[in-house]
Amino acid sequence: MTDHPLPFRDPQLTFALRTADLLGRLTLDERIAMLHQFAPAVERLGLGPFRTGQEALHGVAWMGPATVFPQAVGLGATWNDELVRRVGEAVGNEVRAKRAEDDRVGLNVWAPTVNLLRHPLWGRGEEGYSEDPALTSAIAVAYTRGLRGDDPLYWRTAPVLKHWLAHNNETDRDTASSSVRPRVLHEYDLRAFRSAVRAGAVAGVMPAYNLVNGRPNHVSPLLAQELRSWTELPLVVCSDAGAPSNLVDSEHYFDTHEEATAASLKAGVDSFTDHGQDSTVMTGRIRDALAKGLLDEEDIDNAVRRILELRFRLGEFDPQIDPYADAADFDTAGHRALALEAAEQSVVLLQNDGLLPLEPRDGRTVAVVGLLADACKLDWYSGTLLHRSTPLDGLRERYGAENVLFAEGADRIRLKCAEGWLTVPEAVAATDGEARGAEGALDPALLAGRTDLPPLTCGEAATELALVDWGEGVLTFRTDEGLYLSVADDGYVRASADEPGGWVVQETFRREAVEGHDGGHRLLHIGTGGYVTVAADGAKVAESGEKIPAARATVFETQTVERGEDAVARVAAAADTVVVVAGNDPHINGRETEDRTTLALPAQQDRLWRTAHAANPRTVLVLTSAYPYAVPDADAELPALLWTAHGGQAAGTALARILAGDVSPAGRLPQTWYACDDDLPGLLDYDIIGSRQTYLYFDGTPLYPFGHGLAYTDFTYSALRTALEEEGLRVSLTVTNDGAVAADEVSQLYVRAADSPADLPLRRLVGHRRVHLAAGAAERVEFLVPVEELGHWNVAHGRWTVEPGAYEILAGASSTDIRLTATAIVDGEASGPRPVVERGLEAADYDEQQGTEILDRTKTAGDTVAAVEAVGQLLFRACDFGDGVRGISASASGAGSVTVSVDGRTAEIVVPATTGPYDYRTVEAALDASGVHDVRVTLQGSVRLAGLGFTA
Predict the structure, then answer these.
(1) For 930, which DSSP code?
(2) How far is CA 543 from the centre of its chain?
(3) How far apart are CA 656 and CA 181, in angstroms?
(4) What is the chain's Cα-based Rg?
(5) From CA 762, how far away is CA 698, in angstroms rounded?
(6) Helix count (H) and strand count (E) of the chain?
(7) Do 70 and 84 meet the contact criterion of CB atoms below 8 Å apart?
(8) How far apart are CA 270 and CA 543, in angstroms?
(9) What are the tens digits of pLDDT across the range 778-787?
(10) Is the dihedral of CA 273, 274, 278, 281 positive or negative?
(11) For residue 112, is the peptide bond before it cis, meaning its omega torsion is within 30 degrees of 0?
(12) Cα 408 to the chain's mean position, in Å?
């Protein structure tokens, strides 16, 4: 094989051969140790320690200063694959550069997140790219290619996709089960992962906390059946933090941790992220599972082999020839320019009656107001800012500081109690807190608040505070020096935080009215659940580790020094134009661990734009947020609206350049903006077909549709051509800039079957292209659509099917702004009716359902269907009974009945109680049926139906 004394060190050999040699040299204990996130060194072979998991969603996160790009949903709004590839390349280079300075930085990056944004109230919407699987996968392919690099052998970083699978709720996220029917699974959720994996720039995936069809994602058979079938690369599956323990502790899916760990490893999990840097718990469980015969060494070796090959691809063993070993690009001029470009391209112009662009000129004044007007917000997966540009900064720079007025719009208040006024000690007032996490942390959830500052007291002098209600009564208090009231581990309240943040936010409070005290209220600290009391040693919410109860809370009275609306009205009336910047703080009311409850803009911010508009009709509303809002009144009343995700370090400069007309906006919405909460399904309803979710199925009228976005010019579409070729459907069209300014246009291509049944998408994105056109210029845009993209998952036959016939090709500027249409005739395979005599009916393969959920048939594989409450119904269309059947059988567990109706005939199958949910029995009954008919099934009781069979 080689003359090298240690073949795994020989770069002339393939990675597979080198991995095999190294694997054979490791002891069993050394191999088991590699299955934890923090794998120790093997000094006798010269192997260093290895860590899976470096967060890099939109820049290097958690490890101190780095270039901060727009949030992932903002990158999705660019609809620009090439731009996102360059962002990925810059982030990958900064990971390498930081690794050279700090060996805590890992090269196995946990990014991007490809969970689809099916529901706008999901707390982690900021982490995804789009509600559409095609756009999500295209952006993910671009980002991972940038992170990976172009070398055929060595990888700049090793990206891991998050979070497998069907994960869009933070509410009960580790115990809730997503009921995902086969069509939604294959047409929607899997598609977002599949294209990125097939592109060859993905090193692995991370399973999500939730369950899918009653089975935890960390023991999902789809890891082997689907994921690993898409590529020859040895993908590494990294558990989410603490999820292996959840299998027993919160989900109660297994009785023991040894069973759970063995099941995860056998299902395909390779690296266990649990108990922080202490690997002994997980490795102990693996050893115990092995000793009990729940695992064998081959299971361990399969996982270690995949991890080792990943380490070879990262150049760990070949530093002299690794092309990325000396990457040192960090905070370069190019990265700063790219951050600005990305922020500019992510801005979406929602509505404009001609007020914008607002060119700077002598004597023109602009008032910048709103709770985010002087903010540059970060999220949980951001790095620490090296550079910072707020909207106020950007507009002052572009329009001249002397021409820009400012009012934040926070209420200015004082808090009074029986002992006097709440006071921030004078010595603290000028103290600046270092940005949270600036020093870097492997687990920022462990970062604690400052205890080196004295707590608040009550006295004769009052400290004025800026009070903000972020919605639903969640309050923050901030001093004039920019420090938020916060609580540290010792329970005292201090003015110490530069921003709200942390895994458990310690800067938010609620007011509670106190009976018998007119205007008096308690302050509840949300993070600890303790109430603020002011004692001789200072204000606190806990003492001796026990939270202060309501009975001991200090009663406060709030004195308003100035209402935020009054300050906004004053500066709005004094300016030529007003820019209101509203939105969310990414750590409050919608984030990891917390879903939103409404699409509505928080009441305080709603009042601010109304106040500004009443004082000055030339008012622009800029929504800076991680998710959509329902703002129908603003859309109807204001002359211009824009949306941008939190845009990173260059957000303010980018916004100013858009407003001034230096850049024509060309971002497009990556998800539907609904008009009201009534348009939304339940948060835990994952059946986008049945509940008509996303632009694919929503048949109402959205506030702003998927793909929407305006520009400062007009574009025309012409000369649509289609041709069916061997490679697929080739579509071309001409886009012309009819206006007087250069601008980008995002051409969008959709398709639908001409005779589409109601349960197929109304239209589906199959291509997009962002092009830059000078004034008056035109460009021919071409798309190649694989024919398989026209298909759907055929539950009647259990396969992907492209039906023969006519398909409408729709080209335009959004999912509803269709400019050109054409028809293409495609040869396909007619699906025909369900061959139930030969195949039977899998219960989960229904066409419609009411009141049911899909659950796990066994702990390792298969689906079954049960009623959510007492009764559930299933419909199977066009079932072919041929010349006739005489009997029916049901495979079911539980207790109750299965009633089957066909062409007016009914068979009731009584299922006697079985010993448990996985104890299935086959129960038979008589049923006469022939020809093609719909089948209706009614489930009653605790029956879990796996399937139906029919006999002649």
Answers:
(1) -
(2) 38
(3) 46
(4) 30
(5) 8
(6) 21, 52
(7) no
(8) 43
(9) 999 999 999 9
(10) negative
(11) yes
(12) 30
Strands 493-497, 509-513: pairing kind: unpaired
> How many CB atoms neighbour CB 49 within 10 A?
10
pLDDT greater than 60 at residue 90: yes
Average pLDDT in the chain: 96
Q: Which two tokens stand for residue 434?
A: 């270092």
Q: What value, to the nearest 5°, has the Cα angle with vertex 426 and ends 421 and 430?
A: 130
The b/e string for 533-550 (b: 16+ C-beta within 10 A; e otherwise) is bbbeebbbbbbeeebbee
For residue 250, give the amino acid letter: S
Contact between 891 and 925 under an 8 Å Cβ cutoff? The reply is no
The label of the residue with tokens 């700063």 reads 336
Pairing of strands 108-110, 50-55: parallel
Rounded to whole angstroms, the Cα distance separating 310 from 312 reads: 5
How many other C-beta atoms are found inside a 10 Å radius of the C-beta of residue 78?
Answer: 30
The answer to whether 706 touches 132, Cβ cutoff 8 Å, is yes
Q: What does the pLDDT read at residue 428?
A: 43
Residues 114 and 192 sit within 8 Å (Cβ to Cβ): yes
What is d(CA 577, CA 656) in angstroms, rounded to the nearest whole number? 13
DSSP 928: E
Of residues 163, 51, 39, the one with CA closest to residue 107:
51
Tokens of 275: 């108990």
Catalytic residue among 240, 374, 469, 679: 240
Nearest by Cα to 582 from 482, 484, 470: 470
Q: What average pLDDT does the segment 879-903 reach?
A: 97
Which secondary structure element, helix H or strand E, spans residue 733, and what is its range? strand 728-737
Give pTM, 2 decimals: 0.97
Contacts of residue 619, defined as CB under 8 A and 6 or more positions apart, other chains included, come to 572, 577, 578, 579, 580, 609, 612, 613, 638, 639
The model's pLDDT over 7-24, given as tens digits with 9 standing for 90+, comes to 999 999 999 999 999 999
d(CA 74, CA 92): 19
> Given a cut of 80, is residue 430 above it in pLDDT?
no
For residue range 204-258, list pLDDT tens digits in order: 999 999 999 999 999 999 999 999 999 999 999 999 999 999 999 999 999 999 9
The 10 Å Cβ neighbour count of residue 927 is 22
Q: Give the containing element (helix H, strand E) for 152.
A: none
Concerning whether 240 is annotated as a catalytic residue, the answer is yes
Identity of the amino acid at 312 = F
- Evaluate if residue 583 carries a pLDDT over 70: yes
97-125 burial code (b ≥16 CB/10 A, e <16): bbbeeeeebbbbbbbbbbbbbbbbbbbbb
- 72: closest CA among 41, 29, 108, 116? 116
Beta-sheet pairing, 484-487 with 764-773 = unpaired
- For the chain, the first-to-last Cα distance in angstroms comes to 62
Task: From 336, 444, 389, 329, select the one nearest 69 (Cα to Cα).
Answer: 336
Alpha-carbon torsion (610, 612, 617, 619), positive or negative: negative
What is the DSSP-derived secondary structure letter of residue 43? G
Mean pLDDT across 431-447: 66
Closest of 555, 621, 617, 620 to residue 583, by C-alpha: 621
Model confidence pLDDT, tens digit, residues 651-696: 999 999 999 999 999 999 999 999 999 999 999 999 999 999 999 9
- At residue 1, the pLDDT reads 54
Q: How many CA atoms lie within 13 Å of 116's alpha carbon, on the beta-carbon side?
A: 29
SS (H, E, C) 368-398: EECCCCCCCCCCCCCCEECCCCCHHHHHHHH
Of the pLDDT bands very low, low, confident and very high (cuts 50, 70, 90), residue 517 is confident
Instruction: Encode pLDDT of 99-139 as tens digits.
Output: 999 999 999 999 999 999 999 999 999 999 999 999 999 99
Cβ atoms of 884 and 942 within 8 Å: the answer is no
**Tens digit of each residue's pLDDT (9 = 90 or more) over 246-303:** 999 999 999 999 999 999 999 999 999 999 999 999 999 999 999 999 999 999 999 9
Structure tokens at 199: 């592109």
